[in-house]
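Hi team, as promised in this morning's meeting, here are the two structures we talked about. I've kept the exact order from the run log so nobody has to guess. The first one is mostly here for context; it's the second one we should focus on when we meet again. Sequence first, then the predicted structure tokens.
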Amino acid sequence: MTLILKTKPGDYSAELPAEFSGGELSDYLSAYCANPLFRSARFEELEIDDNPYRRPVRPEDLSFLRFDRPFGRADASQLSALIGHRMLLNIHDTAKPMYAANMTPERWAEHALFYGERNRVLGELVRPLLEEHLFGFVREAVAEQVADRPEPDVAGLRSLLTDLAERRGSAAEEVVGLVAGAKAADEAAKMTAVQLLAGTLNAPLRVSPAMVPSPGGTGTPAITGARREAHPIDDVLGAVLDACGFGLEPHRYYQYYLPSTLAAMNYLSGTARDPGQVFAFLGAMCVRTLDSLALIGGHGARLAGLAGPADSARTEAALARTAPAAETAATVEAITRTVLEPLSHRFGPPALAAFDRGAREYALLLDVHHDDLTTQLRWIDSAEVYRAKAERLQAAIDEHHIPVALDTFVESWEECSTTHVHDDDRLLVIESGEMEFWNCFSGMHKFRAGDKLFIPKHRLHGSVVLSGECVYHQPVITADLDQRYG
């Protein structure tokens, strides 16, 4: 397909020409994902060891996915969101220099594939299409929120941040409560920590006054630059990651990022790279600051203890330097003084309105992430419940001869299914062979012939075949079938 612009000389619109519409550009998604770096994962790639360029997108799913229209909040963890955000993360990361610890000839070849002109140009071509698909519902929801509100001022934005800090505090308590109450609390803690680590690879935990632009000058919204102001909260997160035994290689745990984790990362990357979005980026970073204080500052010690043994000296030292409740209030004051007031003084109402929009949009993405993570944690912790549910549903299908949509797979030894989600509820029914199934970092389930599991829609999972051949079925479970027999 070739793009031939039909714009006449002198014509101009702030909108992209029709030739750049979603329908016209969708073919380029397949071309972009043809990069061998993005092929699906092999068994040995459950963790990506010292290779920042290898990104298992699962491109085979592009054959049936649509990216030419936004989805609603209820579908924010659907398959096109997961695959789309994986692609968008990869696109953003081509603007960030990354190197393996051991730059072998193979790594240099992959470096060339990742940063090469073809990958970068195709990525930029499809980026607007992906962003509209992935963030359309966020923009619409926030536009409705602010439609009848007065123009924001410093006092109103300070009140908004105070309310958001309280909301993030309640969300953090719920997450850590779920982790602590889990049967395998260490696995739940590690799955939670994977999401935290992903975000820190993407952006600092706190906003910096240096990010605020000045008239006639520049700000420093680049979120992965060398200048990251040290803060005790970073040490607290470090203690959590130590307890998990996590390495810090870029995106080593890429397969375990939830769709909503990627969404929050990509929002920050997208607004940071766009000079027209610098004030929205600042709003988002201020909310990220409050969220970090709530979860990491408020519950980091507990998460570290649940994840496993940690360097107690480092943990104690880090925690001794934080006072989360007091610091949250102080942080809102500091943001008011160092971000909001300078924005109001230097740039006036348009900057504050953009800050307000960025804060609200990112806060909505955090709400979506909270729902996504807590739902995943509950599913992880309820394996036996979902096995029993699967047995009831399959028995009803067999007994009542209920016709269902059914996918059947025949896979060979060590054939791996890159982590993914389904857009409908399904059963996993093993007919023959053996499979290792995971829905959590470090949490594995071994299935044999006759085993069954209910897989709710939008829940992240993957698998690998452990026998010479494995035959399994995935009956689709409708809402009516689930209500009657589940």
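And here is the second protein, the one for discussion:
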Amino acid sequence: METDLAAVAVGALAAALTGTATNLGQEAASAVVRAVRERLGTTPRGRAALAGLETAPDDAGARREAEAVLRDEVRADPALRSTLAVHLNASTSHTTGSVVINGGRVRGSQISLGPITVNKPNTTGGLLVLAAALLVAVALVVYGGVRLLADGSPGDGGGRSGVKARALSVAETEQMMPSLTDLPGTWGTSRPPGAEPSGETKCHQGAAEYEAVEGSRTLDLKVRFLAYACSSTALAAEGYTSLVKSPTNPGSRKERPFPTRKFGDESATAAYAVEDEYMADPSQVGQHLMSRARVGNVVIEMHYGPVRDEAGSEQQAEQLMRIMCDRAREAQAQG
């Protein structure tokens, strides 16, 4: 049975808009969301469908309209079909009366995905969003097993070799920076994605900053992305080495090495702490992580913190850095 790529891709976008699929692997999910948004945004009907979906992501009518528009685009554009198929690793199977996912099964009021059991929601909206997430999962059968939009196999940490390196334009550098829909969790924008042309450094500088949100309350946790899109790999390698050898951070504190997986071609992560002491900024008290990496011609620095009980985790910081590195990789591969 051939996968309906449009339905699965729109389902991924709907799930991302409601926060349902944020734990299914953000690198692949963000690539699909980005592709759907960009293609729907090219026509008046597509823009109207996208607006309707963003307003009511759990509305079946809005979903159907977005799927219809995207389905026409997929049929007319083999490149788009190939892009979605690659990111979704599309393949499905059907079993009467149940859905089987690598040994998982829908039964009664529960859904089992291998070792994971999920209670089916009682509301129509909740069922629609869950169905979207299941469509994404069902479409991702790879080598006889399911990869739920995986960020990479264990141990790779997003650190793939053979990255295509090329110089990015200012516009490409800005597009490379993560937007709200690319981030797991709930965030508000402190500084929208942007980029400035290179000066003497010969590296365009991109930046974006977000703050964690809980309901109507803004938390102290922030993530700040800086990216330097250089004109050559040699220049990027030199810049990366300089960042690691002479690190600076918003707290101007001494950093200590922090163990994590590899990102991009080369990477290093460090941590520093702001103690609750006299004259300390209360909003900055806690542990902060500084992740630095080079992906081809792009040098990345990410500040994440403070990590406290109320918000933030080392796992989320790693996930965000993988997203940024993946975007740098994709931006250079598109040329």
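Starting points for discussion:
DSSP finds nine helices and 13 strands in the chain.
The longest helix spans residues 314-333.
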